[in-house]
Amino acid sequence: MAETVTFKNMALAKAINESLRRALDTDPKVLVMGEDVGKLGGVFRVTDGLQKDFGESRVIDTPLAESGIVGTAIGLALRGYRPVVEIQFDGFVFPAYDQIVTQLAKMHARSLGKVKLPVVVRIPYGGGIGAVEHHSESPESLFAHVAGLKVVSPSNASDAYWMMQQAIQSDDPVIFFEPKRRYWDKAEVNTEAIPGPLHTARVVREGTDLTLVAYGPMVKLCQEVADAAAEEGRSLEVLDLRSVSPLDFDAIQTSVEKTRRLVVVHEAPVFFGSGAEIAARITERCFYHLEAPVLRVGGYHAPYPPARLEESYLPDLDRVLDAVDRSLAY
């Protein structure tokens, strides 16, 4: 008799909620902390209902003090807990940056491996929702640059569900970037089968002419670009990185050796962004395979603009297609 597989159609935000619920139910050492995560259920309702079901000692409404939230989570992790902390918006993480990079990221090395800090820092990030200042940043490269931190970002509900499970189970701190513009995108989630290791990339569309690499909010855009290119007879491969640190360079290399061209897309500014590291490393690895330089599409090296201008700031279909055209023109 075939095994019964449980599939649920849910939005990305709901998938994270279900994943947190499962972790809280499975492990009494898992805690959820943050501003308004309890009674309100989070500003995006990602933690909706969790405090009601697990109590105020497991799902904790904190003061508005990001440094204190992360510092407290570090102390709890030292005592054997597995805290999952929410930074309400991406731009609010910087008061906690000191705690994250000088304490959370360093403790394992400082103790010669004796101390582990299984802390997950959830950060809704990116633009596309018409928010005010400090609510649409993409600071993932700042954290990827710090040794000792894992940095991941799901692009769909299935990955959101399972990557959160894997992040909570990790003995190393994980910065979990949630693409807020994709919170309401729905997909089928198999709640019984892990789709793959946390830090592996996945080909979401096969192609032969050029590779598009993205993660988080830009994966859907790259799939739309591939659809548009197909109408012109071009076959684009789309690779979802899923993890920014560590990066799955082997998967990128395998794809580029097939297509011989690469365009990297992310919302964060191109200048010193994650695409720069990918471009440099793939140029080293695939120099004799590349038929065009690695191109990057991202935000501009400027403060994030007011909401009425964000569509001009963020990568869109035309800007990515322009990069595809330029690459194929070589």
Automatic annotation (TrEMBL):
It holds the Pfam family Transket_pyr. It comes from the Bacteria. InterPro entries: THDP-binding, Transketo_C/PFOR_II, Transketolase-like_Pyr-bd, Transketolase_C. This is Alpha-ketoacid dehydrogenase subunit beta. One of its GO terms (molecular function) is oxidoreductase activity. Residues 10-185 form the Transketolase-like pyrimidine-binding domain. Keywords: Oxidoreductase, Thiamine pyrophosphate. Its EC number is 1.2.4.-. Signal peptide: none annotated. Its cofactor is thiamine diphosphate. The lineage of its organism: Bacteria, Bacillati, Actinomycetota, Actinomycetes, Kitasatosporales.
